[in-house]
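Hi Y.,

Following your request, here is the sequence exactly as I used it, all 251 residues.
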Amino acid sequence: MCFAVNLAFAQTDTIRLKDKRLLTSVLKPGLKQYLVYFQTPASPKTLRFWFWLRDIKTESRGGEKVFTITQHWYGNDTTSYREVYSVNKAADFAPVYHSETVKNIKSAYNWHSDKITGADTVKGNAKKDFSLAFNTPNFNWNLDIETFEMLPLAAGKTFAINFYDAGLDPPKYILYKVSGSEIVATLNDEKIDCWKLLTEGDYSGGHFSQTFWISKKGHEFLKEEDAFNGGYRYKVKMAQGAIDLMPRFKK
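Below is the corresponding structure, written out as C-alpha cells. Let me know if you'd prefer a different format.
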C-alpha cells in the first residue's frame, strides 16, 4: 500500500534522476526476506501475515549494468500471492521495466524517462495498451525499500522523491523526513544505530504515517511501522539464516 503525501518541510532535498544523488553503490545484491504482519487493536486475538522475498541481482543488458529485483509475496492462500519483477539502471536507479502478476493477472510495462507504456511483446499482458506521458523522470514506487537504502540520510534532512506506482495515478513528489535516530536490537541483542525516516499525511479521509528504520553504517532497511485506518502494519527483516523458499517451490 502506497500513500501520496501533501506536506511541506524546510530545506527539502529533491531526489531527481538527473542529479544521480542515490548512493547506488551501497545497494547490496542478494536475497532479502521480510515478515509483514497487520494488527487491528479492535481485534485483539488475530493477526494477518505476509512473507516477502526480494532478490536483487546485478546484470548487464545491452552493455549497460542494471539491477534486477524479483519479489515474491506469500500469504495464507493463493489469492494473496503476487510476483513482481523490475529492471533499473545501476547508474541512477532509473526504471527500465516492471511487471506484476496479481491474482493471475499480469501487468507489464516498459519504463522510459518521458513515458511508461504497456509491454506489447509480453504474452497475456493485461496492460499492453496502457500509456502515460511524464513531465519529468521518476522512480519506481514499488521499490521504495531499495530507494530508501540508497538515500544520503543525515540528521534533519527531508527528501522529496518523484515516485510512480506503475499503472496507477500520475507520478508525484512524496516527502520523507529524517525524524531522528534509534538503536534497533537484532539477533544476539546486537545493537544497530538507525536513522528513522518518516512520511505522513491524509488518505481516504484518515491520517496515516509510515516510519522506516535504516541502519547508518550499512544502509540496510531493518523494519517499518505504518499506522492507518485504525490499524498497523509492520515489516521486519529476517536474519540472513532464513531459509530460501524458492528452490523447493520450483521442484
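The chain has a mean pLDDT of 93.

Thanks again,
Q.
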